[in-house]
Amino acid sequence: MKTLPKRLWAPRAWIGGAWQDGVLLGVDADGRWAELHTGVAAPPDATELPGPVLPGLVDAHSHAFQRAFAGLAERRSGEHDDFWSWRDRMYGVALRLGPQGLRAVAAQLYGELLQGGYTQVCEFHYLHHAEDGRPYADPLAMSRALAEAAAEAGIGLTLLPVLYQRAGFRQPALRDDQRRFATDVDTVLALRDGVRALGLPRVDAGVAVHSLRAATPQGLRDLAARCADDPAPIHIHVAEQTGEVDDCLAATGARPIEWLARQGVLDARWQLVHATHAEPAEIDAVAASGAGVVLCPSTEANLGDGLADLPRWMASGAPLSIGSDSQMARSWPPELRWLEYGQRLLLQRRNVSAPAPAAALFERTLQGGAAAAGLGPWGLRVGARADLLVLDTQAPGLCGVPRGDLLDALVFATEAPAFSETWVAGRRVHPAADRRAAFEGAMHELWR
Question: Fewer CB atoms near the end CB (10 Å): N or C, the chain?
Answer without folding.
Answer: N
